[in-house]
Amino acid sequence: MVKNQKNNRNDEKQRTKNKKHIKKTAS
Predict the structure, then answer these.
(1) In Å, what is the CA distance from 23 to each residue of 5, 9, 12, 15?
(2) Centroid of chain to Cα 4
(3) pLDDT of 3
(4) pTM to 2 decimal places
């Protein structure tokens, strides 16, 4: 369960990173 929470947090981090990256390349 704790491991899962950690993974979810990492997923969110990765997603926000990707979003930022996409914005950067799009503009």
Answers:
(1) 27, 21, 16, 12
(2) 15
(3) 82
(4) 0.43
- Domain count of the chain? 1
**Burial, 10: exposed, middle or buried (Cβ in 10 Å; 0-12, 13-18, 19+)?**
exposed
DSSP state of 27: -
Here the tokens at position 6 are 């950690």
Structure-token pair, residue 14: 């990765």
By residue range, what is the domain housing residue 16? 1-27
Distance, CA of 15 to CA of 24 (rounded, Å):
14
* Tokens linked to 13: 């981090």
